[in-house]
Write a structure and sequence with these properties.
The protein is of the alpha+beta class. It folds into 2 domains: 104 residues, Beta-Lactamase, CATH 3.30.450; 154 residues, 2-Layer Sandwich (Beta-Lactamase), CATH 3.30.450.20. It has 11 helices and 10 strands. Strands 2-1-5-4-3 form a 5-stranded antiparallel sheet, with helices on both faces. A 5-stranded antiparallel sheet has the order 7-6-10-9-8.
Length: 284
C-alpha cells in the first residue's frame, strides 16, 4: 500500500452528506470522505493509496476517465452525470464536478438518483401513453394523487386544468385557486421565462414566446428535467427540477401538458456551499 499523506485542509468535507475525493497525478486516492465510501459501497481503506484503475478495472474506457485525465493535464473543470453500477446489480446516478487542485483533482459528487429516476419515469410514461393510454390511467392517477411531487396539468394554451396535492403543499395554493389560471402569469419567474424563451428561439432559429419554453421542449420530446424557479403564494421563490410531457387523448392527439416538479432547493444550496469550499481550496 502506498503511504497516503494527510491533507488537513480537506477535513471540511469529512462530515458532509455529499461526496468529496482527491485523486493525485498517479491516479491514487489521497483523500475520500465517508460519503464517497457509502456511494461506492467500498471501504475507505480499500480506496486510500490505491489507484482508480485497481479499484475500478476498465475505467480507462469511460467518459469519467477522460474528464479526469483532461483536468489533470490541462487544469480544466468538468461536470457530468455518471451512471454507477453497484455489485448487487442496482444503479445509482451521481452529478460529478471535477476541478484541479494543488494535489491533482478534486471530485465533488451529488447523488441525483431520484431526479434521474423521475426523468426515466416520464420517458416511460410518455411511451406507454402513446401505446396504451387507457391502461396507464390508473398509474397516472396514483402518481397524480401523490404528495411527493408537484404535478400541474394545462391545456394547449397554458391554462391550468389539474393541480395535485403535491403542488398544493409545495406552492401554497389550493387546487380551486389555481384551476383556470395561466402558469406563466402566476407561477413562473418573469425574468427566467423571458431568458428561456430567448435562448430557445436562438437555438431553433424561430420566435418562441417566453411562456412556451417547456411546451416547446415537450413537443420535441425532450423530457430531461431542467432547473427553473416557481413563485409560491407567499411570494417566495422555489427552485425546482421540472420536466414537461404532452397529454395525449385516445387518438394520440396532444390535448395539453403535464409538468412534474420536485423541490431542488436543498440540493442547489448544497452545491453552492461546496463550490465555495472548493474554490477556497483552489485559491487559498
Amino acid at each position: 500500500m502506498i503511504p497516503v499523506m494527510q491533507y488537513d485542509k480537506y477535513a471540511i468535507f469529512d462530515q458532509l452528506m455529499e461526496g468529496a475525493q482527491v485523486i493525485n497525478p498517479q491516479w491514487e486516492y489521497v483523500y475520500v470522505n465517508d460519503t464517497v465510501s457509502t456511494h461506492g459501497k467500498i471501504p475507505k481503506s480499500q480506496l486510500l493509496g490505491n489507484t482508480m484503475m485497481n479499484v475500478y478495472p476498465g475505467i480507462e474506457k469511460t467518459e469519467l476517465y477522460t474528464h479526469i485525465w483532461t483536468c489533470l493535464r490541462f487544469k480544466t473543470r468538468h461536470q457530468m452525470v455518471n451512471e454507477f453500477a453497484f455489485p448487487d446489480g442496482t444503479k445509482g446516478y451521481f452529478e460529478l464536478r471535477i476541478q484541479p487542485v494543488e494535489e491533482g483533482v478534486l471530485i465533488l459528487s451529488f447523488d441525483v438518483t431520484k431526479q434521474k429516476e423521475t426523468e426515466f419515469f416520464i420517458q416511460r410514461t410518455n411511451v406507454s401513453l402513446e401505446e396504451e393510454v387507457q391502461k396507464q390511467q390508473c398509474e397516472l392517477r396514483a402518481l397524480f394523487d401523490s404528495a411527493a411531487v408537484a404535478i400541474i396539468g394545462t391545456d394547449l394554451y397554458g391554462t391550468i386544468t389539474h393541480f395535485n396535492k403535491g403542488a398544493e403543499i409545495l406552492l401554497g395554493y389550493t387546487s380551486d385557486e389555481m384551476i383556470q389560471s395561466s402558469i406563466p402569469f402566476v407561477l413562473d419567474l418573469k425574468e427566467e421565462t423571458i431568458k428561456n424563451g430567448e435562448e430557445l428561439s436562438k437555438h431553433y432559429g424561430k420566435g418562441i414566446k417566453s411562456g412556451d419554453f417547456f411546451v416547446e421542449l415537450a413537443q420535441k420530446k425532450l423530457f430531461k428535467a431542467r432547473e427553473c424557479t416557481y413563485i409560491r403564494k407567499n411570494g417566495t421563490t422555489l427552485p425546482v427540477s421540472l420536466a414537461v410531457t404532452t397529454i395525449l387523448d385516445t387518438g394520440k392527439n396532444g390535448v395539453g401538458y403535464f409538468g412534474i416538479a420536485t423541490d431542488s432547493s436543498e440540493l442547489k444550496k448544497t452545491k453552492s456551499d461546496l463550490e465555495v469550499l472548493a474554490n477556497r481550496l483552489q485559491h487559498p
